[in-house]
Amino acid sequence: MTNTTKHTACVFGIDTGGTTTDAVLYDPLTEGVVAKGMAPTTRQDLKNGIHHSIDSLRPVNGADLSDVQIEKVVLSTTLATNAIVEGQGRPTGLILIGSRPKGDLPTDQVAQITGKINIKGREKEPVNPDEIEAAVTQMLPKVEAIAVSGMMSVRNNAHELAVKKVIRCHSKMPVVCGHELSSKLGYHDRTVTAVLNASLIPIIEGFVQAVREAMAERNIAAPVYLVKGDGALASLETISSKPIETILSGPAASILGAMVLAKTDSGIVADMGGTTTDTGVVRHHSLTLSPVGAKVGQWQTQVDSAKLATFGLGGDTEIYPDVSAGAPVLTTHRVPPACRGGEKEDLTPTDLLCAEGSLTRWDTAASQYALAFQSRRAGLNQADYLSQAKALVVDRIVSKVFNEAAYSEGADAELPVIAIGAPAKTWYTLVKNEADVHRDILVPEHFEVANAVGAATAAIEERVDALVRPDEATEGYVAHVGGQSVFFEDKDKAVAYAKAEAGKIAQKQAESQGPETIHTDVTDKDIQQKIGWRWRYVETRVQAVARSGHLTLVPEEEKPAFEKNFD
Asked: Which architecture does CATH list for 8-84+205-259?
């Protein structure tokens, strides 16, 4: 399996989940899976899990793997998400320009310097070079990366860039500016995003090197990409500087893979993993993005991510006996299944299937012991305890997927539920046969490696937002785009400038990702507010989207913004 001889051109998709690392070879020409495999995820060294998943590949329908050319490698990874949740980021300093944002920050190494930009992007107070020099000199010995954040930097990035330039004169350590990661207002969340991103850069460097080594050892010289949290691709080089964009990449990849495998353009995707089930709604190839960005642990970020609902139910969810009630209880906590080396009294949905004999790949005897132990504690025979425990799993699926997830998103009645993930087939077949549900249920072929298929079929997409607003000081208009604010007397000229600049930036960012064919679309929308019987112009929103694929990532509609003099 190399890419040195021209044969069947495939994409290599790898998903490193919390429990398993799945791998597929996907042929984009036939839209089919050529080979698939999975191995336990090795969280201490993700490289091992990637190696083992590659070694586990087995051909589908007699495919000849020696006749495969790898044209692209795409991964989704939990590395950034886990590092943030577990507080494993590297020591990071933060230089704030102007006031401190309200709320907790993910670092104690904070320095403040003077400087102020107003809401229109005009400088009101310059930065002081001596203050910058002092802050940088004082901070460098204590940290491995530095974040720089200033209020209104998305309207004028000059102050942040000035600080970054000084840091670069003193050190080669990673430096991240808030405006480089988001064009949204929201000083606190943008600052949090910058700090977290900076703290992840030293970590992602090791992962990127491990991936390169794993590919080189197998003579795979194809370009390597990672899936971002919004389902789009980014090159290894891009992720090396913006690793935070990979948070929640696994759930995004699962949605992409489900739609490809089910061969439909609309549906409610339910990805049942080891710990949780993630759900998302796709309509006509359009995936809605979260309106506020991804939240990981306690931290709200401004990183684009798919709009998802998550609940505690997976193959490894804990079941225990309620002695007083004489019945099993399904928790939301993960424990290693008894059949895979967990505690001998622990029972999970995976153990239920092993105990009854419908799943035979692990230690059936261990699951049967756990079932016998818990049923005795509850005062039930094993058959009744097993039946009641399985019913709890089915009930939670119906409640969370067919009721809450569907109706909270206003999903049309004709939208099917597309079930994926290793435990999906058994449990959703039970739902279909035993529960009163009124939606079609699709469990597509290769459902167990849908995340890896999603990685293999993801596409490049870069979005750039711009804004045109009235400038009360001059009775003209100001165009905010790319961290700059440009002033115009005429609204149409301001909008034309914003569209042209946003389009160029999006096109350039997408083309920098690799040799894909990129198409760029630029749209604009006037926002007005009704006051009495009159309509007042508020702003024009411009968005440029440069993409190589067909799935559209749609930001949830924002309410009209009425700017105040704060970020």
From this structure: 2-Layer Sandwich (3.30)
Task: For 301-359, write each residue's pLDDT tens digit.
Answer: 999 988 888 888 999 999 999 999 999 999 999 999 999 999 999 999 999 999 999 88
Degrees, nearest 5: CA angle 31-35-37: 125
Helix intervals (H) in 443-547:
450-457, 491-511
Phi and psi at residue 211, in whole multiples of 5°? -65, -45
**What residue spans define the domains of the chain?**
8-84+205-259, 92-200, 264-443, 460-548
For residue 28, give the nearest of 235, 256, 245, 226 by alpha carbon: 256
d(CA 119, CA 417): 45
The answer to whether 105 and 191 are in contact (CB under 8 A) is yes
Percentage, residues of the chain above pLDDT 90: 65
3-state secondary structure of 211: helix
What pLDDT was estimated at residue 212?
85
What does the pLDDT read at residue 2? 47
Would you state the CATH architecture of domain 264-443? 2-Layer Sandwich (3.30)
pLDDT of residue 300: 94
User: Would you say the CATH fold of 264-443 matches that of 8-84+205-259?
Assistant: yes
Q: Over the chain, what is the mean pLDDT?
A: 90
Tell me: the pLDDT tens digits for 495-551? Answer: 999 999 999 999 999 999 877 789 999 999 999 998 888 999 999 999 999 998 655
Cα 335 to chain centroid distance, Å, stands at 24
Nearest to 267 by CA among 252, 251, 255, 250: 255
Worst-scoring range by mean pLDDT, 123-132, 152-161, 269-278, 547-556? 547-556
3-class DSSP assignment, residue 432: helix
For 151-298, strand residue ranges (E) read 175-177, 224-227, 233-235, 267-272, 277-283, 286-289, 295-296
Pairing between β-strand 327-334 and β-strand 317-322 as defined by DSSP bridges: antiparallel
The residues pairing with 465 across neighbouring beta strands, listed in sequence order, are 543
Can you list the positions of beta strands (E) in 456-518? 461-471, 476-481, 484-488
Place of tokens 């495919």: 63
Give the mean model confidence (pLDDT) for residues 74-78.
87
